[in-house]
Amino acid sequence: MNVIFMLASLFCVLFITTHFANKYVLSELRFTYPTIFQGWQTLVGVVMFKALISTGHVENLLQGKEWHDCALWLPGMMSFLISIYSGSRALANLPIPVFFVMQNLTLVFRATYNLVFHRQILSVYSYLMLMLSVSSAVAVAKTDPQYDPDGYFWMCVHVVSLGFFDIYTSVMKGRLKLRATERLFCCYFYSFLVLAPCSYFLGDALEAARFPYLYFTKFYLGCILSGVLGMLLNVCAIRIDELRSVQSLMNVNTIQSVAKILCSCASLSFYDMKMTHSFICFIAINLVCCVGFYESTSHRRTQLLPINYSRRNDDQSSLESSILSVDGSQKLKRHELQQDMIHADLI
């Protein structure tokens, strides 16, 4: 339990610092060249994976895997690329709390997946939290005093691609032979291979050469921190998810929702944001309802686990009792047969 708490605290710290570093480079320094920025982050991810493998902190990746195993993950890599590109464009134009509120619309994709594929109907409390999250997100967009159409457009692309990524990951969980770290490495490597040439053909490389902060230390420091912290954040999330699958403890989505609240509150002290009373209320409702939704769904799953185990134990005990009864009847028949044979011999 202490390990989970430490990892959750580390996840929150990495989550806040990663988004602060990305927001600083994208909004404060106005480095709005996502092919270069995201290409740099994915390159850092690939290099750090190689460093972690060499130090023994991560097992060898893609060892003994076939090409068709990676080909099955190709839609996931494509949606990952679209999500990080669109997310970078959206975060450059939207405040951090608004970015998190719109990102919480992926709850609809999760609920739809559970309903269609697992026939899992939401409880009344979970359904109420979902409806409040969706309605408050729409209200935030309507009452935003800094409404930016370009930012909201890329935010819609980010939400759809991120929702498809979550659904495809869940659907292919039993078919993919790749571990979570291998899937993340493939996403990083594929994104870098695509973004590197795109930065030249889309003209971002030529425009970035005239960037006013190109030779400033704060620019390189922000880029390095964004890449390293983002990689560590994803690895920490994978570790929490692995521990949860073994010990059935905290859900990484619940921890991320709490980290969004902390990051949103902290961003108000560092970044300028126009606010109204209704605007702030809708943001608070959305972030709190997201925590309630994930907490209710994870609590419901943990409640179902003892029932399944009890059924399994009952079935096992009934099977053992039936086997014992069969063995006992066979022994009784064998004993009676031996007695008859002895009786025949005596006669």
From TrEMBL:
Signal peptide start-end: 1-21
Entry superkingdom: Eukaryota
This protein's UniProt keywords: Membrane, Signal, Transmembrane, Transmembrane helix
Annotated TM spans: 37-58, 124-140, 152-172, 184-203, 215-237, 249-271, 277-294
Protein name as annotated: Transmembrane protein 241
Lineage of the species this protein comes from: Eukaryota, Metazoa, Spiralia, Lophotrochozoa, Mollusca
